[in-house]
Amino acid sequence: MEIEILFSEAITKAVTNLNSESQINWTPVITTLGGALIGAAASIIPQKFILNDQQKREADAIRSAFNAEIKSITDIIEKRKLKKEVIEHINFLKKENSDDFKITFEVRISNNYNINYKENIGKIGLLEKNAANNIVRFYHILDSIICDIGPEGHIAKEGGKLNDFISLKELFDDLSETSKGII
Fold it and tell me: What is the pTM of this model?
């Protein structure tokens, strides 16, 4: 409303000055241009606020969806005691004290474990930079774990040595720590 009053006052002043110094009546021209400017401002400014509000709501929805999916994944990892099992394998391999000894370890994983991530990765830029970075980091760590112990993973198929399981435990630690920065 203040913008319209300021435009109106500026137009009135300009028309008064032009009409007093010239033989040409500038009132219709200035009024038309002023009306166009006021109309443009009146339509653009609210659109900006509407767009920002829509983006904020979409970002909130995406954040909530990622939080739910990440919480579900971390809960499943905890309930299945996967990290504990990795630690048990480490302890066993340390006792064996053999560089050639391998243990296979496979975890079946649903194809849809990261459906929210797949569907919303293109919108992750709507989130705060730190949240977006942590979410991407979480899923990359998780994918790395799956590459090791998923049905096609090298530890699942060929077995892993002590160093493989130590690395796997570190990935589980990183995954857990990263999830705390998200949920």
Answer: 0.72
Quote the longest CA-to-CA distance of the chain.
Answer: 105
Query: Domain boundaries in the chain?
Result: 2-180
Residues 83-118 have pLDDT tens digits of 999 999 999 999 988 778 999 999 999 999 999 999
Q: How far is CA 137 from CA 43, 122, 151, in A?
A: 41, 15, 22
User: What angle separates helix 27-79 from helix 2-21, to the nearest 10 degrees?
Assistant: 160
The residue type found at 83 is: K
- Judge whether 148 and 159 are in contact, CB under 8 Å: no
List the helix and strand counts (H, then E) for the chain. 7, 0
